[in-house]
Amino acid sequence: xxxxxxxxxxxxxxxxxxxxxxxxxxxxxxxxxxxxxxxxxxxxxxxxxxxxxxxxxxxxxxxxxxxxxxxxxxxxxxxxxxxxxxxxxxxxxxxxxxxxxxxxxxxxxxxxxxxxxxxxxxxxxxxxxxxxxxxxxxxxxxxxxxxxxxxxxxxxxxxxxxxxxxxxxxxxxxxxxxxxxxxxxxxxxxxxxxxxxxxxxxxxxxxxxxxxxxxxxxxxxxxxxxxxxxxxxxxxxxxxxxxxxxxxxxxxxxxxxxxxxxxxxxxxxxxxxxxxxxxxxxxxxxxxxxxxxxxxxxxxxxxxxxxxxxxxxxxxxxxxxxxxxxxxxxxxxxxxxxxxxxxxxxxxxxxxxxxxxxxxxxxxxxxxxxxxxxxxxxxxxxxxxxxxxxxxxxxxxxxxxxxxxxxxxxxxxxxxxxxxx
Amino acid sequence: xxxxxxxxxxxxxxxxxxxxxxxxxxxxxxxxxxxxxxxxxxxxxxxxxxxxxxxxxxxxxxxxxxxxxxxxxxxxxxxxxxxxxxxxxxxxxxxxxxxxxxxxxxxxxxxxxxxxxxxxxxxxxxxxxxxxxxxxxxxxxxxxxxxxxxx
Lengths: 421, 151
Known about the structure:
The structure holds 2 protein chains of 2 kinds. In chain A, 42% of the residues lie in helices and 16% in strands. Chain A contains 15 helices and 17 strands. Chain A has helices at residues 7-17, 20-25, 52-65, 75-95, 109-124, 143-152, 169-175, 198-207, 227-230, 255-260, 295-311, 313-332, 359-367, 381-386, 403-420; strands spanning 33-34, 37-38, 40-41, 103-106, 130-134, 155-159, 180-186, 212-215, 234-238, 249-253, 271-274, 279-281, 337-340, 349-354, 371-372, 374-376, 392-396. In chain A, helix 3 (52-65) runs antiparallel to helix 11 (295-311). In chain B, 42% of the residues lie in helices and 20% in strands. Chain B has a 4-stranded mixed sheet with strand order 3-2-1-4, covered by helices on one side. By secondary structure, chain B is of the alpha+beta class. The chains are: A alpha/beta, B alpha+beta. At the A-B interface, helix 13 and helix 15 of A face helix 1 and helix 3 of B.
């Protein structure tokens, strides 16, 4: 028990418990070198690396239990179905969803959002209706809505952000109108690192009976998410940013909303009966999982969730915050560097520009130092436009990054400045 | 700095990226074309004035990385006074150089200053940066006014 009397020792506790070097040992790829230098992997917002537990689980699944799911009567099909549905149960518990049938496996966040645009957007949108998004969305939370708006004669409206990269909450209130049919908002911005005040926004939207979709791709690796406490209507995330495999992701949707939605794709698995005259669709979530799913991917995602739970997201978040604060202070010491995205609540994303040096040149020089960052528009061109830059360099953190690696980044940036000064 | 990086960012390239030559617009009445790399957001506009079959004047504008800016800058210096056929032949040699299909030494004479881009071949992700302006030039010479994209 922590009491007021031992605050000092309690505040040291997480650091002592969070042994980053032991965690690094869990990730085989972190032991390798690139260009003869130790790998410094700071491109975690694009995709994170995989712990041995995930790699081994997938390998063992293929070696021992693999078959198609939900159809076979044989032993392996039962085993595979158990593993696949077991992963669904893990996702439910991870998101604190009420029911397993509210968890739909998809390819990733992008497909999850497209599924809602198709199954919900196309169904409810009438000409003149509106979808509300924000100015800090990834293209995957812009383009699907644009497509459905164009098709239905609806309008896409955008909540602006301030110079720090924070959502203008008052504008949310103003833009939520009688024609708003959905609010689709990023939980944590991939380009800026901003953690949006989603609780407040959801409350505002619900007061007007507007359902809310959260793009959680960048949030789930860093924050504990409770979809029931948030009361969000849809939540989307990808496995590969959560130390899981690529090609698998999740759409959470409230059961009554999912049940009322049209299927996204037709095919096997999603039907209850088919004749040439009429097809009756399966119940949720099968209705949205046409065809053979990414079975091993889901199983791997389940293992990734187990792994993250074993670390504890709270401890991970606290450690990453410490790294973020350290990196922010270190970058601030380099006069040529300008941070893009300085929200008060941020996850481990450091987007930056250096006057007169293009981010791609920064990326190339750092790469040869063994430092992997992302350089470009991060699939968020409107964000780049908002800040008047064609692109940024972005270092993004995960649970396994260290202060030494941040020091290596800072030294690398020093080399960049030297080359192009 | 590694030797590959030194090869990539040679003095000539750094100089042209910081002080690009012929970096201006030539007005709307001349032949021009736009080029974009949607993956990185690089943009370039190439303007050409032809006199008969020869490039009388050429200039560019845009924004991009050191490689793409320097490439466009050296391009404008290199092709002035050349015929369409000579420009096309240069592009072929340049293409072979940056994709690593030919080495700079073997083509030193025809490539001239363009040979400084030989280091690009060690950086496959940067080949498009070097080549975008050349594709855009081809479009400008055709006078079709379409936008060239690397993707």
